[in-house]
Write a structure and sequence with these properties.
Elements lengths: L3 H8 L5 E5 H16 L4 E5 L6 H10 L2 E4 L2 H10 L6 E3 L6 H9 L4 E4 L2 H14 L3 E8 L21 E2 L3 H10 L3 E7 L10 H19 L6 E3 L18 H11 L7 E6 L1 H4 L3 E12 L4 E5 L8 H5 L5 E3 L8 E7 L8 E9 L6 E4 L20 E5 L3
Parallel strand pairs: 1-17, 2-3, 2-10, 3-4, 4-5, 5-6, 6-7, 6-8, 8-9, 9-10, 12-14
Antiparallel strand pairs: 1-11, 11-12, 11-16, 13-16, 14-15
Helix pairs in contact: 2-3, 4-5, 5-6, 8-9
The structure holds ligand LLP.
Length: 385
């Protein structure tokens, strides 16, 4: 991924920083767009994965819409230039202020997660003399077979409306004068690598679409969410298999000719196109363990501390041919979970070496924090190696 030229450039830069490979990003976006267009599917980028302006500009230029989960994300999408009819607003806890702002901006639709939220959107729209378009997020009780912290589509999760509440939901929709029902929405979890899971989702989507149609609703939009995973173990597998992914929905969804199928992909679009670049501050050789202490910590990349997530770690100042040693690679934060990897094989590492932590484009920079009064993490852009 990096040429020597890149590393020479990095040598002068202040670390830590996120390096974004804009060439790989564009290749990934193009691959996704081509695979989706083949079926006339619509992709909304899940902005929560990364709202870095430079990335959003490429994503917008590729023609994707925006899936937002806060009022600020909606405003950012508008600022970047996403057309309002391609902006959806999801989230289990939208505030009145956020709903009002989104109503003022005339976005495409609200993905609604509870009956009470339907009532509130109806009231707020009524006060403005507007009609809000809504899609009902249904909890389909489909197991995504991913890390339990990023599973969202089971009965025990807080997301969406459960199937037993749908009769009341349908009644509420029928009575609400300022709501226009446009369709149904699902999202069962993130970092899904077993594509069979999506076949089960399609079966449920078909059932629920049928349920609404039987009650006289026109289901214009089938929004199946996101969740397509990336290969953290092998970051050289740079571009996810979008063709296989979309083919499942083409094969298993009972799509009516007048229906649109929407996707909300985040990680799959941006995950592999970034590495967190950090410098070795100290090396501690102990009796039982050797530690490499980096200038990046859980404040810059929280995933390992939060989900025990695996990210490949490389010493990019050393040659592949050099002998390797096992190190625990840790950050400077005063928390024991501030660890990027245990017993990582690295070439003999010295103070000042540059370390790349791979596959950090999704849920990396956006989940960084100021804990310990750390500085905001920087980003840098290149065209790959
Ligand atoms: N749609 C909805 C309603 C979502 O909640 C999410 C992600 C997505 C779409 C996009 O999912 P993706 O395609 O990126 O898997 N911070 C965690 C991931 C949290 C995902 C939250 N929802 C991580 O670092 O793994």
């Amino acid at each position: 991924m990096f040429s020597n030229k890149d590393i020479a450039q990095f040598a002068d830069l202040d670390t830590p920083f996120y390096y974004y490979d804009l060439k790989l990003l564009q290749q990934t976006l193009d691959a996704c767009a081509a695979a989706a267009n083949a079926h006339d599917f619509h992709v909304h980028y899940a902005m929560k994965a990364n709202f870095n302006d430079r990335l959003l500009q490429s994503i917008h230029a590729t023609g994707f819409g925006a899936d937002c989960v806060s009022g600020n994300e909606v405003k950012k999408a508008i600022e970047i230039g996403f057309p309002k009819e391609q902006i959806v607003f999801a989230g289990v806890g939208k505030s009145d202020k956020e709903i009002n702002e989104a109503l003022d901006l005339d976005i495409f639709c609200f993905n609604v997660e509870s009956i009470q939220e339907l009532e509130v959107i109806n009231e707020l729209a009524q006060a403005k003399g507007k009609t809000a378009k809504v899609a009902i997020r249904i909890n389909p009780n489909v197991d995504a077979h991913t890390h339990h912290n990023i599973t969202t589509g089971l009965d025990e999760n807080k997301f969406g409306i459960n199937s037993w509440d749908l009769p009341l939901c349908a009644e509420t929709l029928k009575l609400a004068k300022n709501l226009e029902f446009v369709g149904i929405h699902f999202h069962i979890g993130s970092q899904i690598t077993n594509l069979d899971v999506y076949k089960n989702l399609c079966v449920r989507v078909n059932e629920f679409a049928g349920w609404f149609e039987e009650r006289g609703f026109m289901v214009k939009v089938l929004n199946v969410g996101g969740g397509l995973g990336i290969d953290y173990q092998n970051p050289e597998q740079q571009i996810p298999d979008f063709i296989a992914y979309f083919q499942i929905f083409a094969d298993f969804l009972n799509k009516r000719p007048n229906q649109e199928v929407h996707f909300e992909l985040g990680r799959a679009l941006v995950g592999q196109s970034s590495s967190l670049i950090s410098r070795v501050l100290y090396v501690k050789n102990g009796k039982k363990k050797n530690f490499v202490i980096l200038d990046a910590g859980m404040t810059e990349l929280m995933r390992p501390a939060l989900y025990q997530a695996y990210h490949q770690i490389e010493n990019i100042s050393r040659q592949d041919s050099e002998e390797v040693i096992k190190y625990d690679v840790v950050g400077p934060i005063c928390e024991s979970t501030d660890c990027f990897g245990k017993e990582v094989l690295l070439q003999e590492t010295k103070r000042g070496d540059l370390i790349a932590i791979r596959s950090t484009g999704a849920y990396g920079e956006v989940m960084s924090s100021h804990y310990n009064l750390r500085e905001a993490v920087r980003s840098s852009f290149g065209q790959g190696g």
